[in-house]
Specification:
With 560 residues, the protein is of the alpha+beta class. It folds into 3 domains: 142 residues, Reverse transcriptase/Diguanylate cyclase domain (Alpha-Beta Plaits, 2-Layer Sandwich), CATH 3.30.70; 203 residues, Reverse transcriptase/Diguanylate cyclase domain (Alpha-Beta Plaits, 2-Layer Sandwich), CATH 3.30.70.270; 140 residues, no CATH class. The protein has 18 helices and 19 strands. Helix 9 runs antiparallel to helix 10 and helix 14 runs antiparallel to helix 15. Keywords: Antiviral defense, Nucleotide-binding. It comes from Thermosporothrix sp. COM3.
């Protein structure tokens, strides 16, 4: 029996979804890709008698008759081209399987003859990487590859008011939103219409309970998101999503800022390598996807109760092990914490005896003014997430890490440049060949879940004390001197005018830092506002850190 595995992966998802700064088109693009991935691709595969292993997160895997694999791949590509109006594409790769006895349970066997299923899946992933890099694309795929050419120019041609890239072909307007009136290209028109279709689906939608859901059943993206909210949040409500970024002013006490949260699974490639059968592959993909939706729903239900019929959040991208959401700035850190913690808990519950599959999330939070260009905010989010993932890379099993950036003033878009503003290294030569290195870090980012929980509790206590902004700003300026002597002297001078309870609270954050790291007090050297953890008596290098700058930056942006 000759069969093959065929894997699909959507190309440049973020480029298609985020090539506009308009919220409705971003949502529409995300909804289109979700429908194509979870519904249309599966429907086409079923026409060819294929067996679905998984289809979520922009990728899919099917078991199909080897003779039909190429035709299946081509039809899915045509579907993406048609439904996105040329805005998105998808790449496929095919891995033939060795002939095997049809009586074998292909889903649960680890070997086909002498060939391991895990090796075949690894080879399939390699083929897919090569195809996406256009290094080893089949001739039939090469013929359909789109090549970018320069667009013609003419004074009577108008570019799209949404993406600014393609030429406009339609004029759209909405009676209830004058801001949406304008000229749109064919791609953005499709996104806009998709968002309107989702809006109609949400009208008068009430919570529906599902005792069991078949994996192959497709639910529209927003229906599935709402399914995981608390039932009481939705009963009898006509639900509306934010019309634009400025709508978030209605949900927040801090009306000028918005929070962008980007979460991504850690070391997923390494996790996939431990799977031995197609059934394990299917179960893992389903578990990750379900856990992410459940964690997202729980985090929103806990921290963002509905404001009348208005949803106080927006989901820009979700599926697989990725989620990007917009929330009020004052709840962003709590949502990020609950999202990462709930996801990790779900995986531990599902795989209690398999540590290798107990996945975690890296999360970035960018707090920026509502009028700040969204493209720049997303760029910051990508860099902040990358820094969190880099911090967790040395671990055999990366922990959940949360990194954040607060956009104030002229902030650098480069992660390295931002770190240089918060770090300084000085050398003291004690001989011609030996130096004592002292490093100052004005932040503890990225935070583990225990660390973020500790920081949030201090922020909650600090809010009750109503610490003055001027005092905190002076303390921040002293810390950014990044010097032992000057910083210590200026910090103590600044705090002389503080009330006793305020001074005690701030000093205890550093003096009791050993509680966060679960270390004996004598192992932590305190030189307020700095602390340094002694690894050994022979270590001549010191790293001085402080949690106070992180506390100060978040103080005005976290509400309880």
């Amino acid at each position: 029996m000759t069969q093959a595995l065929i894997a699909f992966d959507t190309d440049h998802i973020k480029r298609y979804v985020f090539n506009t700064n308009k919220l409705k088109e971003i949502r529409g693009a995300s909804s289109i890709l979700d429908r194509l991935n979870r519904k249309e691709t599966v429907h086409i595969a079923q026409k060819y008698g294929a067996r679905t292993i998984y289809a979520n997160g922009g990728s899919a895997l099917f078991l199909v008759d080897a003779r039909s694999a190429e035709a299946l791949g081509k039809e899915v590509q045509r579907c993406y081209q048609r439904e996105t109006r040329g805005g998105a594409s998808i790449t496929y790769a095919i891995q033939p399987l060795p002939d095997y006895d049809p009586r074998i349970d292909i889903m649960n066997t680890a070997y086909l003859g002498d060939t391991a299923i895990a090796d075949l899946l690894e080879l399939l992933r390699f083929r897919q990487r090569m195809a996406k890099e256009s290094l080893h694309m089949d001739t039939m795929q090469q013929e359909d590859t789109l090549h970018t050419i320069a667009y013609p120019s003419h004074p009577f041609f108008s570019t799209c008011d949404s993406c600014g890239m393609e030429y406009a072909q339609n004029v759209l307007s909405e009676p209830d939103d004058e801001d949406d009136e304008g000229r749109y290209c064919r791609i953005c028109t499709g996104k806009h219409q998709e968002d309107q279709d989702v809006k109609k689906q949400l009208e008068n939608m009430q919570k529906r309970h599902h005792s069991a859901r078949d994996f192959s059943e497709y639910q529209p993206l927003w229906e599935r998101i709402l399914e995981h909210l608390q039932p009481g949040d939705l009963q009898g409500r006509t639900l509306q999503r934010p019309k634009k970024f400025g709508s978030f002013q209605d949900f927040s006490k801090n009306k000028e800022y918005i929070g962008l949260i980007y979460a991504d699974g850690n070391q997923m490639g390494e996790r996939l390598k431990t799977l031995r059968t197609l059934q394990e592959y299917q179960d893992f993909a389903r578990t990750i996807d379900d856990a992410l939706f459940a964690a997202l729903g729980h985090a929103i239900s806990v921290h963002l109760p509905l404001n009348r019929n208005q949803l106080p959040f927006d989901v820009l991208l979700v599926g697989g092990d990725d989620v990007i959401i917009l929330v009020p700035a004052e709840k962003a850190m709590q949502i990020a914490f609950t999202l990462a913690k709930t996801f990790s808990t779900k995986l531990v519950e599902h795989y209690p005896n398999n540590e290798a599959l107990q996945c975690t999330l890296s999360v970035s939070v960018v707090l920026a003014p509502i009028k700040y260009p969204f493209s720049l905010q997303r760029e910051l989010s990508d860099a902040t997430l990358k820094a969190a993932k880099k911090a967790g890379a040395p671990y055999r099993i990366a922990p959940s890490l949360v990194n954040f950036v607060v956009v104030t003033g002229n902030i650098s878009m480069d992660e390295k440049s931002r770190n240089q503003e918060l770090q300084r290294t000085q050398k003291q030569w004690i001989s011609s060949k030996e130096a004592i290195i002292t490093k100052f870090q004005a932040t503890l980012r990225p935070y583990t879940l225990d660390g973020l929980d500790w920081l949030l509790k201090r922020l909650e206590a600090g809010n009750k004390l109503r610490l003055g902004r001027t005092k905190l700003h002076q303390l921040r300026e002293a810390i950014l001197r990044l010097n032992n002597t000057i910083t210590v002297l200026e910090t103590l001078a600044t705090m002389r005018n503080w009330q006793e309870n305020e001074r005690t609270f701030i000093m205890n954050m550093v003096q009791k830092i050993n509680e966060l790291y679960k270390l004996p007090r004598k192992q932590v050297e305190i030189s307020f506002p700095w602390f340094s953890i002694r690894r050994s008596n022979k270590d001549k290098h010191s790293i001085y850190q402080t949690p106070l700058l992180d506390f100060i930056e978040l103080y005005d942006f976290v509400a309880f």
